[in-house]
Amino acid sequence: MKFSADNWVRENIRSLQSYSSARDEFEGTARIYLDANENPFGTELNRYPDQKQVEIKVLIGEELEIEPEQIFLGNGSDEAIDLLIRASCDPGKNRVISIAPSYGMYSVCSAIQGVDIDMVLLNEDFSLSADRVISLFRNNHKLLFLCSPNNPTGNLLDEDEIIKLVRAFNGVVVVDEAYIDFSDSQGLTGLLKKYRNLVLLRTFSKAWGLAGIRCGMALGHPEIIIYLSKIKYPYNLNVLTQRKIREVLNNPIYVYEMIGLIVKERKRMAGELQKIGGVLRVYPSEANFILIKLDEADYLYAELIKRGVVIRNRSSLELCSGCLRISIGTREENEFLLKEMQNILA
Questions:
Q1: Which of 100, 117, 105, 60 is nearest to 81 (CA)?
Q2: Closest Cα to residue 164, out of 185, 133, 143, 123?
Q3: What is the spatial distance between Cα 284 and Cα 292, in angstroms, rounded to a whole number?
Q4: CA 105 to CA 92: how far, in whole Å?
Q5: 226-260: string of b/e by CB count within 10 Å (b at 16+)?
Q6: Is the peptide bond before 49 cis (omega within 30 degrees of 0)?
Q7: pLDDT tens digits for 121-153?
Q8: Separation between Cα atoms, residue 146 and residue 324, nearest integer Å
Q9: Contact 173, 165 (CB under 8 A)
Q10: pLDDT in tens, 37-51
Q11: Which 3 state secondary structure label does DSSP give 133?
């Protein structure tokens, strides 16, 4: 059955007359702007930002080799997650599916909006079983959230398994590719034109080094992007954020250099962590972090905090008992961590 965004969205969203800001009613450049009740005096930030983010969507489209109409920009990827659920799921009626262990905001956003979520365990090696997920499909499922490379496990999900799910699912499959720039994969952007029910999440917070500006992307069919844009708050991407994005996209060489350094350091850290007594396993990673397993995870986590080093304890997650997640820092930061771990676990 051919996917239709009109059938996927909630009825009230389909018929919604979205808020029309002053700048939505005008296109182009004017000599004088007296339409938006702004302060007329030049404080540099006295004008509202570009509501449609036209310029930076063109730049992003060139970087990712997709069309600007396929891009939604929001306040971090979390806004896109929230809006995808809000656009498609009637509380108490529709449901969401996700994998475990994975990023916690899929569950949190679902819970906030009163939408039940069904969790499917990954295999013991953190690989994805499409057949296991498909066995849970019901007519009232509207969204399937995947994360690849997955957080906190660090592994890429098998592309063939993802495609199998996209083909079998009547709703929208959302693949969170927040960490894709650290992997050997180019991601799934090449599949967007082929599959209308595929949405990818990307972010400027990780590889691009801009977590502080809070900008994330949803990439998908223009029909889906139109509905997300319809229900977002006006002017939600501020002037400073848009300016910084333009800067990095016009000169991305430094970003590519940072990615190379992080990947190189990740590989070195994986080898060094395996040498530390008490570390039972270092999981393969294609992200900017490494997941390790050890007997004394809680003890090590607490002792590192006493020494001023904060990592992430993931022991409470399914399949992650005794696991800690370590973000890749600078060479100096990583060396300090390794030294403290050796002292604590000696």
A1: 105
A2: 133
A3: 9
A4: 19
A5: ebbbbbbeeeebbeebbebbeebbeeeeebeeebe
A6: no
A7: 999 999 999 999 999 999 999 999 999 999 999
A8: 21
A9: yes
A10: 999 998 999 999 999
A11: helix
Each residue's pLDDT tens digit, 79-109: 999 999 999 999 999 999 999 999 999 999 9
d(CA 189, CA 177): 10
Whether residue 152 has a cis bond before it, omega within 30° of 0:
yes
326 to each of 152, 243, 321, 340, how far by Cα in Å?
A: 10, 31, 15, 13
* Unique residue bearing structure tokens 């004017």: 30
CATH T-level topology, domain 254-345? Aspartate Aminotransferase, domain 1 (3.90.1150)
Cα 50 to Cα 36: distance, rounded to the nearest angstrom = 12
Partners of 312 in the β-ladder? 325
- Radius of gyration for the alpha carbons in the chain, expressed in angstroms and rounded: 22
User: Do 254-345 and 5-250 fall under one CATH topology?
Assistant: no
- Give the C-alpha separation, 23 to 173, whole Å: 33
Strands 323-327 and 289-294: antiparallel
Distance CA 221, CA 5 (A): 9
**How many whole angstroms separate alpha carbon 346 and alpha carbon 149?**
32
- The tokens for 54 are 């036209």
Domain ranges (residues) in the chain: 5-250, 254-345
Contact 270, 333 (CB under 8 A): no
DSSP letter at 269 equals: H
User: Residue 146's closest CA among 130, 167, 125, 168?
Assistant: 130
Residue with tokens 């906190």: 152
275-297 as b/e: b if 16+ CB within 10 A: ebebbeebbebbbbbbbbbbeeb
CB < 8 Å & 24+ apart, contacts of 159-166: 159/185, 159/188, 161/127, 161/128, 161/129, 161/130, 162/128, 162/130, 162/188, 163/191, 163/195, 164/130, 164/134, 165/130, 165/133, 165/134, 166/191, 166/195, 166/197, 166/198
pTM for the predicted model, two decimal places: 0.97
Considering the domain 5-250 in this protein, what is its CATH number? 3.40.640.10
